[in-house]
Design a protein that fits this description.
It contains 17 helices and 8 strands. It is of the alpha/beta class. The chain has an 8-stranded mixed sheet with strand order 3-2-1-4-7-6-8-5, sandwiched between helices. The two termini are about 40 Å apart.
């Protein structure tokens, strides 16, 4: 735990983690129990008479499908809070100070561009600082940052050893106690923001009483290939679902890049958890349990690069899946306590069943089909879930939006989006099996950023340039 975190906060984190069962063995035991329960649910219908084997799936499809349909369709026809223009900056009250924070490791391809983008943001001089934590970069990132500091007084750089531990959370905790602004805007090194984003985001957050706000994530390189286009659809789908969940009394979540955090609220929950692989998902639950509301803003978005290859996607989604499951295992007792409202519990239950239980149960159903030589039983549940996901993709991509154009909707693109989402039916069961059988060793698992924009080098050329500066990237680059 960083020495800069106050003793009171460090004690809070130790108590919270102990109560949540963050120990690797406890998580492994919970993953094994979860896997066994889902396996039983998936296989058990094969033992029922043929006329009743589809009853469990039809029941789940009806109940969860109805809730999901309400979340998607009502949101599509409702004027949301993010569609309402934020209040103008009041001349009587000075704008709040904002600290933009970036944890960077081997980001020579994008770090210079990021600093220039922050310099272009419209915000009063002296009220905006950019903190970059150089987390043991082996490329030219340190040299570039030193050069940029000479041109931009608002840029402050901290460095820590590559093996300092704690991953991105450790890097963010290092800078947390040195911040003085009311708001902390966490960005990835490849982030792109509109120049007026703070003029719209901060007043909206303060007027709404939000402890945190997540900007919609937009894919900057959606036109590169079918995979990046599918990820652009997924980001629109995710933002639509998030807004729908929140509007129905449910829960919204942080997504790492483009998250505005109240520094006071962040200190209240003990900073960032260094014992997790997804700091944003973990922080979302700790805010939830402390009654600190999280909002979602559709426009303006934060732009980022989508991964270019299936192997890169596979690595990224394994980390997301593990972090997503991990938080339910760690904070389960709190999630079923009276600290949450009934609507929040209902929303989390439906989300957990659709996002994590369904893929594992569907895999167990296939195993049962092979061993019992009977027909699959979970297909109605899976089909309804995928169909509603396709509806959410189409609704989100047709919604007016700023930033990069969203993929045009037609039968082919909608089919691509649905087919793309099937990868979660592979990722979630595989990650669950790994969590149940193997001990976890925390590592920094960063996504390769190439700095692609319109007019930039082709994907292959960009990867070749990255490989020259960092041979460790060769395993990912070889698949481009």
């Amino acid at each position: 735990m960083p020495a800069t975190i106050p003793l009171r906060v460090r004690a809070w984190m130790r108590i919270t983690m102990a109560a949540g069962g963050s120990d690797s063995d406890r998580r492994r035991a919970k993953a094994a129990l979860f896997l066994a329960c889902c396996g039983l649910v998936g296989i058990a219908p094969h033992w029922l008479p043929p006329g009743r084997s589809l009853v469990p799936a039809l029941t789940l499809a009806t109940l969860l499908g109805g809730y999901s349909l309400r979340t998607v369709l009502l949101q599509a026809f409702r004027r949301t809070g993010s569609d309402t223009p934020p209040p103008p900056l009041s001349p009587a009250a000075p704008p709040s100070a904002v600290d933009v924070v970036v944890a960077a490791r081997d980001e020579q391809a994008v770090i210079g561009r990021l600093v220039e983008r922050i310099a272009a943001l419209r915000w009063p001089e002296g009220q905006l600082s950019l903190w970059v934590v150089d987390d043991g970069s082996d490329d030219r990132t340190p040299e570039l940052l030193a050069e940029l500091q000479g041109r931009h007084p608002f840029l402050r750089v901290l460095r820590r050893p590559r093996d300092a531990g704690g991953g991105k959370s450790g890097a963010l905790n290092l800078v947390l106690q040195q911040l003085g602004g009311r708001w902390m805007l966490v960005l990835d090194a490849d982030a792109d923001l509109q120049s007026d984003v703070l003029e719209r985001l901060v007043p909206w957050a303060e007027a709404g009483g939000w402890a945190a706000v997540q900007l919609r994530k937009a894919v900057a390189n959606a036109q590169t290939n079918l995979l990046t286009s599918a990820q652009a659809m997924e980001m629109a789908f995710d933002a639509m679902i998030q807004e729908g969940r929140l509007a129905n009394g449910g829960v919204a979540e942080l997504r790492g890049n483009g998250q505005l955090l109240s520094r006071e609220a962040l200190l209240k929950v003990g900073g960032f958890n260094e014992d997790t692989v997804t700091d944003d998902l973990d922080l979302s639950f700790r805010f939830l349990l402390e009654g600190l509301p999280i909002g979602v803003l559709w426009d303006p978005p934060v732009q980022e690069e989508a991964v270019l290859t299936l192997p890169a996607l596979w690595r990224q989604r394994q980390r997301w899946a593990e972090g997503g499951l991990q938080r339910f295992f760690d904070y389960g007792p709190g999630l079923v306590s009276d600290r949450l409202t009934f609507s929040q519990k209902l929303d989390l239950t439906c989300f957990f069943l659709l996002q994590y239980v369904l893929p594992v149960v569907a895999s167990a159903d296939l195993v049962g089909t092979v061993f019992t030589r009977t027909a699959p039983t979970m297909w109605p549940f899976s089909i309804v879930a995928l169909a509603l996901s396709g509806l959410a993709i189409a609704t989100g991509c047709r919604r007016p939006s700023e930033g990069p154009p969203l993929p045009a909707m037609n039968p082919f693109s909608a089919g691509l989006g649905i087919l793309y989402l099937v990868h979660w039916f592979v990722v979630i069961p595989w990650v669950t099996l790994k969590m149940a059988l193997l001990p976890k060793k925390l590592v920094w698992a960063k996504t390769l950023h190439l700095g692609q924009e319109h007019g930039d080098p082709s994907p292959a050329d960009a990867v070749d340039a990255a490989m020259e500066s960092d041979p460790e990237l060769a395993s990912e680059a070889s698949h481009v």
